[in-house]
Amino acid sequence: MIIKENILLSDHTTIKLGGAAKYFIECDTEESVKEALEFAKEKNCKVQTLSGGSNIIFADHGFDGVILKINIKGVSVKKDKDDFFIYSGAGENWDEFVKYCIENELTGAECLSGIPGSVGATPVQNVGAYGQEVSGIIYSLKAIERESFETRNFRNEDCRFAYRESIFKSAYKDKYIITEVVFKMKKNSEPEINYPELKKYIDSHKEYSGLSAGKEKLNFIRNAVISLRKKKSMVIDADDPNTISCGSFFTNPVLSVSEFETFKIKTEALNLLTPYYTTSDKDKIKIPAAWLVEQSGFVKGYKTKGAGISANHSLAIINLGGKTADTLSLSEEIIKSVKEKFGIMLIPEPVIVK
Ligand SMILES: Cc1cc2nc3c(=O)[nH]c(=O)nc-3n(C[C@H](O)[C@H](O)[C@H](O)COP(=O)(O)OP(=O)(O)OC[C@H]3O[C@@H](n4cnc5c(N)ncnc54)[C@H](O)[C@@H]3O)c2cc1C
Predict the structure, then answer these.
(1) What is the Å distance from ligand 1's center to 117 Cα?
(2) Can 160 be counted among the known catalytic residues?
């Protein structure tokens, strides 16, 4: 275990924000996670788990404790009849993992291509995009309890997955460190395409229907998703300043039927069409956060002190060489404006470490 001190967190986050961490420990085994937790206990320090740094924002004053960077590697596959169980270390790169699944003709992760970060962080907010959520393929996971250092297995149903939610963001927030995720997938099954934008793209490429169900179709979908994401600066690219972000800064609000009626009255009074998506729960209606942000005056390319809105995606707050305070102040301004105009409270998606 190598303990580093005074490490700039802006170098470890995709939004390039955050002051120095007092201690910074990279853990590449379960044992080293436990040793690092022991070290934090001895020093009486608080602990923050960090992986790819693509959904986290640290304060300008840094972190006065121990950063545990999860770097546990290794992927292996076990077959049971028609099912394939893929065991991945939490520190594996997510997009490399998706590529590995496609190369091995495993279906279910292809629409999640191009998302930055690690395998171990995907269950935390139930990563999702283009009609797929990681909860659809997670079989179980292994995690270390931060107080007792005990290892516990969670089955899919124990994780309480929902839209951008899991038990690791709610009841067990900061209580467990995920060390391994087990995925259950099928080989060569026909990929499902539900997301309208992706469906339109596939429908406009007639050659798709002639491809075989395995690697060919999966690769086609992967390339389609990456190309759609790139247009929105949703794939990290050192040459694209619009990717200096945490991706979408706000989740799409989910309203009850009566909340939706109140929202509709407001939009109609403003002579606006009411945008919404239905969900699997007929009593819940999802509102596109990007629309709320834009309609409240924060359009693509908006700039303010040190932060702005991506020129290619109105939900992404980008760092324009400023401080965490600038990004958070823009976020607060957006939340206040949306609340005043539409009565809806936006919830930030990234984890903000104060
Ligand atoms: C350009 C861009 C596009 C994005 N697109 C999407 C998208 O389409 N869909 C989507 O859902 N997200 C998206 N994101 C957000 C982000 O990539 C995901 O949430 C990702 O899973 C975060 O992984 P990470 O390893 O970077 O986690 P980090 O940012 O390092 O951590 C995020 C949170 O998870 C916790 N955590 C991390 N690893 C572990 C672990 N092993 N055990 C326990 N807790 C842990 C951290 O403590 C923190 O609370 C995007 C981000 C960017 C920058």
Answers:
(1) 5
(2) no
Place of tokens 């580093």: 4
The whole-model pTM stands at: 0.96
Nearest one of 266, 290, 289, 273 to 342, comparing CA atoms: 266
pLDDT bracket for residue 189 (50, 70, 90): confident
Ligand 1 centre distance from Cα of residue 323 (Å):
20
Q: Decide if 209 is catalytic.
A: no
Residue 331: active-site member:
no
Q: Which atom of ligand 1 sits closest to the CA of residue 129?
A: 8
Q: How far is the CA of 125 from the centre of ligand 1 (A)?
A: 7
CA distance 287 to 212: 36
Chain center to CA of 205: 29
Q: Tens digit of pLDDT for each residue in 79-99?
A: 999 999 999 999 999 999 999
Domain annotation for the chain: domains and CATH numbers: 3-70 (3.30.43.10), 75-231 (3.30.465.10), 241-353 (3.90.78.10)
CA 310 to chain centroid, in Å, comes to 17
